Amino acid sequence: MAVQINPSILSADFSRLAEEAKAVDGADWLHVDIMDNHFVPNLTLGVPVVESLSRAAGTPLDCHLMIEDPDRWAPAYVEAGAGSVTFHAEAAAAPVRLAREIRAKGARASMALKPATPIEPYEDLLPELDMLLVMTVEPGFGGQAFLDVMLPKIRRTRELIARNGLELWLQVDGGVSASTIERCAEAGADVFVAGSAVYGADNPAAAVEALRNQAEE
Ligand code: DX5
Ligand code: ZN
């Protein structure tokens, strides 16, 4: 499966979002972190900004919802133009129904696991999903250190996907950089979110290609 690099605009300059989106034109998806000050102790942006960004960015949007009650709010992000919508397993009341609704509205459906949430209870849900996100930091902030204790979970998730004969993508998010991406790829991840490692670089587009080359090795 081809490697995908998704820069996270959480580390971009929010006053110049369209320009910052265009600065990573070669990226596969633009990762948009939606935070509500309840599910995580931070607040970012919502549906109107996603709507504008989906028109302005030349890259499809991968919306990561770190919010309470995604069952109620996730469909609006599909309508706002997101190509992929990720809800958290810890927050969703009815994950199967929600994944089906996201897909029926025309986006890829994805579910995220916080570091302390195991994958095993969710094995039977995997066919309902297009992607699974294994968080490699506690969600809420960019620039945190990569939790290498998550590598076994990435490996077990990849094995579960293979054992069930599925093709869903396996995304990692948090602390992904030149010094950690190879371990993530080796453990079985194929979609890499990188915030500070891309937008903290002098040349964000070059940073995307450097990460891609490292992950493909
Ligand atoms: C954290 C967010 C991440 C964040 C990653 O809660 O979900 O997407 O932007 O930032 P870095 O790559 O700097 O750890
Ligand atoms: Zn994220």
From TrEMBL:
An example Pfam family from this entry, by short name, is Ribul_P_3_epim
Query: Catalytic activity, per the record?
Result: D-ribulose 5-phosphate = D-xylulose 5-phosphate
Q: Which SUPFAM superfamilies match?
A: Ribulose-phoshate binding barrel (SSF51366)
Q: Which family does it belong to?
A: Belongs to the ribulose-phosphate 3-epimerase family.
Give the protein's cofactors: Zn(2+); a divalent metal cation; Co(2+); Mn(2+)
Which gene specifies this protein's sequence?
Answer: rpe
Read off the InterPro entries from this record: Aldolase_TIM, Ribul_P_3_epim, Ribul_P_3_epim-like, RibuloseP-bd_barrel
Give the source lineage, highest ranks first. Bacteria, Bacillati, Actinomycetota, Actinomycetes, Kitasatosporales
Q: Which residues bind substrate?
A: S8, H64, G140, F141, G142, G143, D173, G174, G175, G195, S196
Instruction: Indicate what this protein is called per its UniProt record.
Output: Ribulose-phosphate 3-epimerase
| Cofactor annotation comment | Binds 1 divalent metal cation per subunit.
Species of origin: Streptomyces meridianus
